[in-house]
Amino acid sequence: MKILPVGFYKYRVDEGSNRTKIVNFLLKLYYFLFGVPDLHSHIRYRFIKKLIKNLYTLDVGAGEGIISFQLATIGINNITISPYTLKEANYATKVKQSNIMYEEMQVIPDDAQQLYKFKNESFDQILVIDVFEHVRDLNKSINAVLSKLKPGGRLVVSVPTNHYPEFFGQKFDRNIGHLRHFSEDDLRNIFERSYGMKIEFLEPYTFYYTSKLCHLYYDVLDTSLLKYILMPILNFISIVTENFHVRPSTEIAAVFVKPLETR
Q: How many of the other CB atoms lie within 10 Å of CB of 123?
């Protein structure tokens, strides 16, 4: 299957009414060639996709569904996308309708601290990718997520580390709504010791040199135009730098398995 850039689908659905025809054309061409102009979205997806299996999946706090829609390009499309806001859900629905590869996917908005629209123990796999750092009541959100996961099901998590503000910038960290950061021990204590989950995988990513690229992109570059121009170059460099596992890292990914018998 053809490798498509993360967020490429925007070329089909993104149409700014206040833009000139030439600007719309150039943006569509950009999305098609390079994907979404957000550096870490590309870095995150390259790492996270290796952890996800082709199972009946719920993507919690999915935003516009960028990870789920990208997974569909590699044949993983039995996914329910659950954005938080109606605006995100409407956009995700628009994307879903834009391509036949998304026809099996569903879009159902819900609150990551409640998930009341879904039946208990109904999913084989749940994705919570950079969401737990945003919720106000962490325990409530974890309980809601685990209640929807079947016994033996997989929980795929990504969270920022305590080094995230150092590289991405305090202002950016604050503006995107991070309420907390995590260490590897935090994840072990929360999911393994407190909730009885089995650790299948737990490793850092977005290592030092890649984080320095993110520092340049998110904390130094101060204009959207520069970010659009440099993102493809920085993204290409990050493919190389992620092979150098020099700490500190700014993200952690983990896979936990729900026990067959709950405590």
A: 24
Which phi and psi (to 5°) does residue 202 adopt?
-155, 110
- Counting the structural domains of the chain, the total is 1
Question: Which residue range forms the structural domain that includes residue 165?
Answer: 38-257
Question: What are the backbone dihedrals phi and psi of residue 135, each rounded to the nearest 5 degrees, phi first?
Answer: -75, 145
* CATH number of the domain enclosing 211: 3.40.50.150
Q: Is residue 24 part of a domain?
A: no
Q: How far is CA 179 from CA 41, 52, 84, 100, 206, in A?
A: 20, 26, 17, 38, 20
Residue 121 located in a structural domain: yes
Residues 6+ apart with CB under 8 A from 184: 202, 204, 252
**Tell me, what's the pLDDT at 17?**
67
Domain assignment of residue 2, yes or no: no
Q: What is the pTM of this model?
A: 0.95
> Which pLDDT tens digit goes with each residue over 220-263?
998 999 999 999 999 999 999 999 999 999 999 999 999 997 55
Distances (CA, A) of 53 to 49, 63, 76, 156, 195: 8, 21, 8, 10, 22
Separation between Cα atoms, residue 212 and residue 223, nearest integer Å: 18
Provide the terminal-to-terminal Cα distance of the chain, rounded to the nearest Å: 43
Pairwise CA distance, residues 44 & 263, whole Å: 33
Predicted local distance difference test score (pLDDT) of residue 42: 98
In-domain check, residue 205 = yes
Q: Would you say 238 and 39 are in contact if contact means Cβ atoms under 8 Å apart?
A: yes
**What residues in the chain have per-residue pLDDT under 50?**
none
Q: What pLDDT is stored for residue 2 in this prediction?
A: 61
